Amino acid sequence: MLIRVMFDDGRFDMVKPPLLDNLLEEQKLTSFMRSGGWAIVARDNIRNGNKSQTHQGAERRAC
After folding, report:
1. Whole-number mean pLDDT of the chain?
2. What is the pTM of this model?
3. Do 3 and 33 contact (CB within 8 A), yes or no?
4. Fewer CB within 10 Å: C terminus or N terminus of the chain?
């Protein structure tokens, strides 16, 4: 699966999920496409690559 991304210089591209993680860590993206629309890096909640962090909110997954 490829994910559409927008770089900080305005270019668009399609990347694989592992590369998305790297680009987010390197702060090279302004936004990327999610199933619900564009995620804006400076505004929306995004994954940060810190696998040790645990979710503190309510469980919303179906059992």
Report:
1. 85
2. 0.71
3. yes
4. C
CB neighbourhood size of 10 (10 A):
7
Give the position of tokens 């309510």: 58
Strand partners of residue 8: none
pLDDT of the residue at 3? 96
Which residue is associated with the tokens 């909640």?
Answer: 45
pLDDT digits (tens, 9 = 90+) for 26-45: 999 999 999 999 999 999 98
- Give the integer Cα–Cα distance in Å for 30 and 40: 6
Q: Could you give the CA distance from residue 35 to residue 38 in angstroms, rounded to a whole number? A: 8
SS3 for 7? strand
